[in-house]
Amino acid sequence: MRAASTPLAMDRAAAGRGARKAQNDTYALKRDCDAGYANTSDVTTVVVVLTTASESSKTMLVALGLGMVATFMVLIITKRATPVVALILVPVAFGLFAGAGLDISDMITDGIKDLAPTAAMLFFAIIFFGIMIDVGLFDPVVRAVVRAVHDDPARLVVGTAVLAGVVSLDGDGSTTFIITTAALLPLYLKLGVSPVVLTVVAGLTNGTMNILPWGGPTARAASALNIDTNDVFVPMIPALAAALVVVLLFAYHLGVLERRRIGKLEIRDSLLAPKEEVLVAAGGGTGLPPRGRRVRGSGSAGTGSTGVDDAPTGDHDLGRPAANPDDDDRDASFSGVLDPNRETLRPKLFWVNAGLTVALLAILGADIVAIPVLFMIFAGIALAINFPHIKQQQEAITRHSSSIVSVVAMVLAAAVLTGVFNGTGMVDAIAHWLADGIPDWMGPHMAIVIGVLSIPLTFLMSNDAFYYGVLPVLSETATRYGIDPTEMARASITGQTVHMQSPLVPAILLLVALAGVTLADHHKKVLWRATVVSLVMLAVGVLVGAVPF
């Protein structure tokens, strides 16, 4: 039989149980603390992993964004694909690589919504100005240019720069290119001067003038940084003037090269014809001999007064070297060549059409009506006034259908690239990558940095993406070094001469389509010249104190 428990024994037992409980509680507390430390460590690890994954994702987006544009440009310059095909397929492929999945559909739709007004504007602008060409509105301009150039291609090319510069004052590139091409392309084709020279000079001039406050980029830079537009533009006027001088020098040099290539120009009497002998519109008759027949003698083209003999090449002797077999097709394009007998002339409505055009340009400059709506209304009025019958109106639209289809198709295709560029986050990734990659020693020179970067970046992306995505990020970095946002904005607009040559700019797609040249041929001659103009503008901006060094 067990002995009865004594009070002392009971106290010892209770003490033992208490000690063991305390020890167990200590172990439990330790376990809880260890578990807490472990949980904290897990959270830290997750944060580190997520941060690393985010950085890796940004790096991948930067690589894909730059690779996408590089691939597109290679395909265009090497002529491996048309701009429409490259603008559609390349972004889709890179967007899927970026993990867009089915969301790529919404991205592209957003891009189309952004560019749909531009496509509509170009559609009806081509119709309106095409009608003005049909009815002979620009014929006096051509005759005046012919008298001014005499027999010198250099004067013709410099005149192109002057005309493009004057028309560019309205701030719209598409209008500039339509009027310049309509007025001068027939003369280029007749005299054997390369149409590529026309696109290069017109593109350089309009790109340089694009920094006007109402042109777009300057207003975007000002609104993105919440500053006044005039504070950005006015100090850059000397830089703009210097850049225009460089453009004129380039124009003269190109004209001299054409003079050496083709010799003296032979001005035909038909070029100085009276009022009724004016430009032919596309589809309105070319005034050329039939394909396979060569003109001989010194008679004016298209008059039928010269003898012809059989020739297998089908080219025509207009005082220029043998042309490409496609020249006949190009002569029958948007602007056509001189024809004294086309049926679309409306000499009695000349002043009506002139007033209509002036009114359109005035409203366009006042910016009181949306541009697509403006061109829709005026195109309808022009059709109704000049071609009152339904059949005539249908024919007037059909005459310019090839230009409309090619330009609008490229604009909508460009929406694919811009949609993917923005939707996948490539623009934001590139902006932060640039900001993070600029070394500290370049901080005091951020204005120069943004000026230089604006040259390639505005070519590779839209103005909206650059001025609302990249500029604010770099400007915030520049403020740490005492550089005012206004100074950053001034430097950022100097790359616009290059920007206007980008395949993402609808106006340049319109220019090359109307002139009948390829984007690749245009880029080969224009890109390095545009870069020089932009660098001169930036350098002069530094010299006059508008941009800090």
Structural write-up:
- By secondary structure, this protein is mainly α.
- It is built from 22 helices and four strands.
- It has helices spanning 7-77, 83-97, 104-134, 139-149, 153-167, 173-191, 195-209, 217-225, 229-233, 237-262, 327-331, 350-366, 371-386, 390-399, 401-423, 426-437, 446-460, 463-479, 485-492, 496-499, 506-515, 519-543, and strands spanning 278-279, 293-295, 308-310, 338-339.
- A two-stranded antiparallel sheet has the order 1-4. Strands 2-3 form a two-stranded antiparallel sheet.
- α5 runs antiparallel to α10, α6 packs antiparallel against α7 and α17 packs across α19.
- The longest helix is centred in the N-terminal third of the chain and has 71 residues, at 7-77.
- The model is unreliable at 1-16, 26-31, 33-38, 40-51 and 269-338 (pLDDT under 50).
Explain the layout of strands and helices.
Layout (H helix, E strand, L loop, with lengths): L6 H71 L5 H15 L6 H31 L4 H11 L3 H15 L5 H19 L3 H15 L7 H9 L3 H5 L3 H26 L15 E2 L13 E3 L12 E3 L16 H5 L6 E2 L10 H17 L4 H16 L3 H10 L1 H23 L2 H12 L8 H15 L2 H17 L5 H8 L3 H4 L6 H10 L3 H25 L6
Antiparallel strand pairs: 1-4, 2-3
